[in-house]
Amino acid sequence: MSKKVTLFHEGSADMKSLLGGKGANLAEMTRVGLPVPPGFTITTQACLEYYEQGRQLIAERKAEILEALSRLEEQTGKTLGNPENPLLVSVRSGAVISMPGMMDTVLNLGLNDETVEGLSKLTENPRFAYDCYRRFIQMYGDVVLGIQHYRFERIIDQRKEAKGAKLDTELSAEDWQWVIERFKQLIREETGTDFPQDPREQLYGAVVAVFDSWNNQRAKIYRKIHKIPDDLGTAVNVQMMVFGNMGEDSGTGVAFTRNPSTGEKELYGEYLINAQGEDVVAGIRTPEPIAALAERMPEIFEQFQEICGKLEAHYRDMQDVEFTVERGNLYILQTRSGKRTAHAAVKIAVDLAMEGLIDQKEALKRVDPNQLDQILHRRIDPEAKLEILTKGLPASPGAASGLIVFDADKAERWANEGRPVILVRPETTPEDIHGIVAAQGVLTNRGGMTSHAAVVARGMGKPCICGCEKAKIDLRKKEMKVGDTVVREGERLSIDGGTGQVIQGEVPLIDPELSAEFQQLLTWADEVRRLKVRTNADNPHDTAKAREFGAEGVGLCRTEHMFMEADRVPLVREMILAESFEERQSALANLLPLQKEDFKGIFRAMEGLPVTIRLLDPPLHEFLPNLEELIAEVTKLSVTQSGSRELLQKENVLRKVRSLHEFNPMLGHRGCRLGLIYPEIYAMQVEAIFRAATETMEEGITVCPEIMIPLVGHVNELREMRKLVNEVADRVEAETGQPVPYTVGTMIEVPRAALTANEIAKEADFFSFGTNDLTQTTFGYSRDDAEGKFLHQYIDQKILPENPFISLDTEGVGQLVAMGVEKGRQTKPALKTGICGEHGGEKSSIRFCHQAGLDYVSCSPFRVPLARLAAAQAALQDEK
Amino acid sequence: MSKKVTLFHEGSADMKSLLGGKGANLAEMTRVGLPVPPGFTITTQACLEYYEQGRQLIAERKAEILEALSRLEEQTGKTLGNPENPLLVSVRSGAVISMPGMMDTVLNLGLNDETVEGLSKLTENPRFAYDCYRRFIQMYGDVVLGIQHYRFERIIDQRKEAKGAKLDTELSAEDWQWVIERFKQLIREETGTDFPQDPREQLYGAVVAVFDSWNNQRAKIYRKIHKIPDDLGTAVNVQMMVFGNMGEDSGTGVAFTRNPSTGEKELYGEYLINAQGEDVVAGIRTPEPIAALAERMPEIFEQFQEICGKLEAHYRDMQDVEFTVERGNLYILQTRSGKRTAHAAVKIAVDLAMEGLIDQKEALKRVDPNQLDQILHRRIDPEAKLEILTKGLPASPGAASGLIVFDADKAERWANEGRPVILVRPETTPEDIHGIVAAQGVLTNRGGMTSHAAVVARGMGKPCICGCEKAKIDLRKKEMKVGDTVVREGERLSIDGGTGQVIQGEVPLIDPELSAEFQQLLTWADEVRRLKVRTNADNPHDTAKAREFGAEGVGLCRTEHMFMEADRVPLVREMILAESFEERQSALANLLPLQKEDFKGIFRAMEGLPVTIRLLDPPLHEFLPNLEELIAEVTKLSVTQSGSRELLQKENVLRKVRSLHEFNPMLGHRGCRLGLIYPEIYAMQVEAIFRAATETMEEGITVCPEIMIPLVGHVNELREMRKLVNEVADRVEAETGQPVPYTVGTMIEVPRAALTANEIAKEADFFSFGTNDLTQTTFGYSRDDAEGKFLHQYIDQKILPENPFISLDTEGVGQLVAMGVEKGRQTKPALKTGICGEHGGEKSSIRFCHQAGLDYVSCSPFRVPLARLAAAQAALQDEK
């Protein structure tokens, strides 16, 4: 059996999986000669063994720990439990993947009734010694013995009250002795045994407690959120204590080697004189900014600066460093890559590359595309004067503005009618999903950052504020009250999910912009990536924004969004409710010029680049009034106004809505199935495209329309629709004399299309994988139903590793994508292939698209930068 | 260029694709020395050439026809257009696949004002000659010149009226001459030219007319119905006329060499003395049974019998023979394999094998499994005394009994509540599909055999009567009136779709039974087939029937059908509406003994054979009241009885129904997704299975339960559910001490399951392909919506070659099935695989299952014999 306990100087950074992140770092720092207090690491293997043995620390392991301890004693010249020269140690967790604050720590271990006396004598500071001892008992009591923290605090409070003291620092050595006795009494009462005086027993207890903390509730939740496997286990680091609280020549602090918020190259952090690390964290005393240390301890500051430089050079990244000064000696307790905002991540990566510490490719790898989502959201114009109503928890970033609505059904209906809404609920449940999908943003007055609304909104990239407790919501009256202000259904509300601000009325939103460093990074990305990046955009504004962000074309222009605009809905309804072909034709003729103008705007914005336009996709009843509401209205009218004209009219509409009603609209009469049964609708759209193209070309603008037929499952469908497109194109050309270059392709979004891609490719110039629908049909999941009814539980219970609507299911759906590409190219080697589902803007899915050999991904405008970076990272992974 | 016109004696039976069925037969009969009037065939190639040339008979072809004509003139010693000894010919179509009555024929061609005189002299029968001539003009006018038949008939009627004659036979030679003049005048008026006197022109005209008739409306429809390709073209047979109407020593007839209705070995047919073939068909004179010929023309009869024997021996099948006797000489005009009922087909195939004409394998190939559907339906007990209300068109065979319902929605609801219904509508439209699906049978008072109701019902194998015009349907009053009898909604009605009989009240139905010959044939089939045949059955009666029909196990026992029974629905609703886990448990505890008894009955009926039981599959809201109805009720109550207790209760139910409501239930919370979220439901079902098995085993009966988890898409789902099954099995065994042998498997019914079958097989003992759902998800079709909204048009327009819900889409869905089998066996070579969708009882799908290497197919009980035969045919095809 291999060694399961190693001293710091025996390890190195590459032993992370064994030593954990912290242990490997301590070892590495020791190895390169930094002033690290000595110690040893009990490896993750020992932790796994502990669990295998049914939560038992076996004798062999105990022996190994004692062996390491005795070597530590040699190194330090101190001995655990020796009153003459006591060794005190910290016992800390250290997982392979950092889980800050999730697991337990015990400090000052080794103190007992005897060694505390020794410490008192050695330091000539009895108050310090008893303070250390009471801190140790308190932590040990909490962490190892499971007695709640507040019960110890209450004893200290009693003493402070008795002494009329406000701060801990006002208590004397005697006070602490009194406190210690009461602490020991509490432990005796609670556990039935005395506080352990044997330092070895203390040590075993602390090690076991740290192992156990791997499976405490918050650690498990943290792992789930951050997708960290449960079977890694944690290492335990036993390290000589150093004390920042030994007087005015001592102190402790935390610093980042660069500003973690902006990325600026400056030491950033804070410190406290005469304090232990926990004092900094606890926030009882206000720490000073790290820059102030330059005056307070100029030599130490200089040494620290130098060490920070060394650390950055060694780790080639911005570091988050914990240090302690014990009686004028600087110790580095920990260093790790510092967490940073997306902004800082970009700047630091680019700066490090500019400084020559890393190369450009490394800089590209340093930024997590998923994190960029933070800065690629609309935000409130900082110039705007805001009427801030209240604040809640900033649960999902981005800002939104819309009409307030108090139930999900109405949110969906209003949104379908083209009205932007903010869904306001006491809290959301899975039954509200369709409302969240429809809304611009969500506000709840209950629930925290991990509430249903928060999780779902983040998943969808929608702004969300949770736990906005000051907003009193009255669902019956349909109003929200904040103090004396009442906001009623239909009134305008704005939210900033990044700050938690709730604002009455509309506020100007501005699009995100790219910093110079971000631009630089993306330029490097463009040099590396093979995948092209396009955008999903349905209007000129989004198209222009996407192009500014580097989009290389429109991958998906959904024409139905154009039908949804308020002024079009009556025309669209007229078209659908038409009783004859002629009536339908006349409604279509009115829609044509509107559609044409839409297309012209998009062609202009994408000048010279391809624009893929998908013909009408959703079932027609989506444009009609809601069936259930109609039933209620008709029933009511038939009781109250039997025989009235209004009733007759409504009954007529109800009849039509019923006739278009579907059991499973997702699998119903939509996509090219509409185009085949009502070719006049597609013909109108195609005519609008070609007229728009012709007119735009007359402006001297190059136009590259790619016409996309949705939901093809059999090559014959595409063949028929392609014929229709060609006929209309020929007709328009005959009339205008202006040929328009165009291609015709299809969405691959039902499994049969991928399975028969070799056939379908005969009629297609391009394939665009509609992975949203393909995921629905491949799994047999209706997204609307699944996310509300079982999908979250599936992910919680690890039935599925990920939400397949967010991260492409490479095993199943991906197999169809790969098959589609391969079979399609067998028939037509030059076939252009892309992806236009939401996965087109998600890191791991983009990586898959790269591997599957697609030509491009297409995503929402704000995700284009993210996709450019992710595509570059995917290409870099090939180089390995 | 190859020869496109051949004389009969130059051809043979194996030239069918060139000569057409009729031409090849004439050639073959000529070749084997039968008395066939000589002639020649213009090949299908010439027809295709005609269409390629834009409907032109090119000069080269005309020359070839004349060349053949002159050889025919040599053979017969007669000459076309020669008044001295005129050759008269028939010109008939002859497609490769017989399309009886669909295309055109011209008889007596060669007659003109001169040759008719010659014929008159030669036959010494002026009346006969002029009758022939007028017949020719009439047919030519109709077929070649496009003048409607009735306009000629009207002229004849005028003459008959003038003469006070009732029958054609009462008209004299002079009368016919008068008629002929008027016919020629009609033609002149209608076409602007004279009736052509040049026999060559007549011949070209007739050939072209036959070619054109390939694309007449009824031929096109016939091809669509019978799935005959449009690009085969027809041959044209030009044959010397022989006349059965030359006096009492002449005659004509049609006979089958065996009884086409029963299959008995006896000449079956009819003849007319002194008549032409069309007289037999027209039904003006009543023909005599063929047996009577033995007395009338004993020598001819003997000769004919002998020829029939030769023909059967030569063609090794029952023949349908047309013959003519001209002045004591027997001519055979046509022979072909005779159409026969399913009963006859079975008997003839077995008899021919017994007689040594064909071997057993050939006998198996001779019966079309699809035809067997005719005899494998429930029918009305012949002993029953029936109150026959009225009769309609027998549009889809089988008998059914149920409650009369006048709209599709209600039909569906009542059926869901376990009440059998007969859907009665004036006519059905695609919007009624769900009602047809739900109903036991369908009755309409409009529409014919090809109406929507008829086509859909036949497709689904449901009894249907159409065009029942005496039934007056009042949709508002919800009643049907026949004479004075009124049948109201909810009253019992029975229909026999095989006879068209509508019967008031309930009638006893009896299951089909297998004749001795059918049993024999199936025994032969069993010796040949590799595929096992199981049945889909949910109750002991169906299970027993299926076993009687040779089922080798239950392939699919749908447990939800047990939930639908009237006495269970309240319990099931209680279980679903439970507000707590405890409430649900208690409802489940009440369901358990009922389910257990169900299983015991099935285990007993399938003693010793495997029974695959699928756990609950449909979404829970299927068991609840209809949402739309509830909304209407609640709206009404809230207007009329605001605040009432009933309103509150209904609102409560509405809330729950709404919360279970799904946008796409087909893709929603069902199958194992239910089992994973509510494991207690599956646990109850599994417990019922194991308790039933234990108790049945105590009766000394061998039980082989196979527990099937529905809708698995990821191996983890199956892993969890398998654990649950094992736990319950262990628990029951611990309690009873009786181990039950069992296996656990899954349905493969979403594409992802097939794509990841290698993973899923790790947890599965068997795969059962649920091709209904797999078709829905692979195509992205909701069957309920597609069949109503676009699928029929897709098939009409040939976007899809077949309805994929009836005949397995081998290209797409089949690819997934084959992949599932292959990948599953990679992981687990002994994996058992079967199919349990409706395709399991369809011939071509069964063939695919055989080829894909499945172990079994499973189908409804009455289709088991069909499947046994189809499986044998599939195996025989391998031998080729």
TrEMBL record, chains A, B:
<dbReference type="InterPro" id="IPR023151">
    <property type="entry name" value="PEP_util_CS"/>
</dbReference>
<feature type="domain" description="Pyruvate phosphate dikinase AMP/ATP-binding">
    <location>
        <begin position="63"/>
        <end position="292"/>
    </location>
</feature>
<dbReference type="InterPro" id="IPR002192">
    <property type="entry name" value="PPDK_AMP/ATP-bd"/>
</dbReference>
<keyword id="KW-0479">Metal-binding</keyword>
<dbReference type="InterPro" id="IPR008279">
    <property type="entry name" value="PEP-util_enz_mobile_dom"/>
</dbReference>
<keyword id="KW-0547">Nucleotide-binding</keyword>
<dbReference type="InterPro" id="IPR018274">
    <property type="entry name" value="PEP_util_AS"/>
</dbReference>
<keyword id="KW-0460">Magnesium</keyword>
<dbReference type="GO" id="GO:0050242">
    <property type="term" value="F:pyruvate, phosphate dikinase activity"/>
</dbReference>
<feature type="active site" description="Tele-phosphohistidine intermediate">
    <location>
        <position position="452"/>
    </location>
</feature>
<feature type="domain" description="PEP-utilising enzyme C-terminal">
    <location>
        <begin position="515"/>
        <end position="874"/>
    </location>
</feature>
<comment type="similarity">
    <text>Belongs to the PEP-utilizing enzyme family.</text>
</comment>
<protein>
    <recommendedName>
        <fullName>Pyruvate, phosphate dikinase</fullName>
        <ecNumber>2.7.9.1</ecNumber>
    </recommendedName>
</protein>
<feature type="domain" description="Pyruvate phosphate dikinase AMP/ATP-binding">
    <location>
        <begin position="17"/>
        <end position="59"/>
    </location>
</feature>
<feature type="binding site">
    <location>
        <position position="770"/>
    </location>
    <ligand>
        <name>substrate</name>
    </ligand>
</feature>
<feature type="binding site">
    <location>
        <position position="773"/>
    </location>
    <ligand>
        <name>substrate</name>
    </ligand>
</feature>
<keyword id="KW-0670">Pyruvate</keyword>
<keyword id="KW-0067">ATP-binding</keyword>
<feature type="domain" description="PEP-utilising enzyme mobile">
    <location>
        <begin position="420"/>
        <end position="500"/>
    </location>
</feature>
<dbReference type="Pfam" id="PF00391">
    <property type="entry name" value="PEP-utilizers"/>
</dbReference>
<feature type="binding site">
    <location>
        <position position="558"/>
    </location>
    <ligand>
        <name>substrate</name>
    </ligand>
</feature>
<dbReference type="InterPro" id="IPR040442">
    <property type="entry name" value="Pyrv_kinase-like_dom_sf"/>
</dbReference>
<dbReference type="InterPro" id="IPR010121">
    <property type="entry name" value="Pyruvate_phosphate_dikinase"/>
</dbReference>
<keyword id="KW-0808">Transferase</keyword>
<feature type="binding site">
    <location>
        <position position="772"/>
    </location>
    <ligand>
        <name>substrate</name>
    </ligand>
</feature>
<feature type="binding site">
    <location>
        <position position="771"/>
    </location>
    <ligand>
        <name>substrate</name>
    </ligand>
</feature>
<dbReference type="InterPro" id="IPR015813">
    <property type="entry name" value="Pyrv/PenolPyrv_kinase-like_dom"/>
</dbReference>
<feature type="binding site">
    <location>
        <position position="749"/>
    </location>
    <ligand>
        <name>Mg(2+)</name>
    </ligand>
</feature>
<dbReference type="GO" id="GO:0016301">
    <property type="term" value="F:kinase activity"/>
</dbReference>
<dbReference type="GO" id="GO:0005524">
    <property type="term" value="F:ATP binding"/>
</dbReference>
<feature type="active site" description="Proton donor">
    <location>
        <position position="836"/>
    </location>
</feature>
<dbReference type="InterPro" id="IPR000121">
    <property type="entry name" value="PEP_util_C"/>
</dbReference>
<dbReference type="GO" id="GO:0046872">
    <property type="term" value="F:metal ion binding"/>
</dbReference>
<feature type="binding site">
    <location>
        <position position="773"/>
    </location>
    <ligand>
        <name>Mg(2+)</name>
    </ligand>
</feature>
<dbReference type="InterPro" id="IPR013815">
    <property type="entry name" value="ATP_grasp_subdomain_1"/>
</dbReference>
<feature type="domain" description="Pyruvate phosphate dikinase AMP/ATP-binding">
    <location>
        <begin position="302"/>
        <end position="354"/>
    </location>
</feature>
<dbReference type="InterPro" id="IPR036637">
    <property type="entry name" value="Phosphohistidine_dom_sf"/>
</dbReference>
<dbReference type="Pfam" id="PF01326">
    <property type="entry name" value="PPDK_N"/>
</dbReference>
<keyword id="KW-0418">Kinase</keyword>
<feature type="binding site">
    <location>
        <position position="749"/>
    </location>
    <ligand>
        <name>substrate</name>
    </ligand>
</feature>
<dbReference type="Pfam" id="PF02896">
    <property type="entry name" value="PEP-utilizers_C"/>
</dbReference>
<feature type="binding site">
    <location>
        <position position="614"/>
    </location>
    <ligand>
        <name>substrate</name>
    </ligand>
</feature>
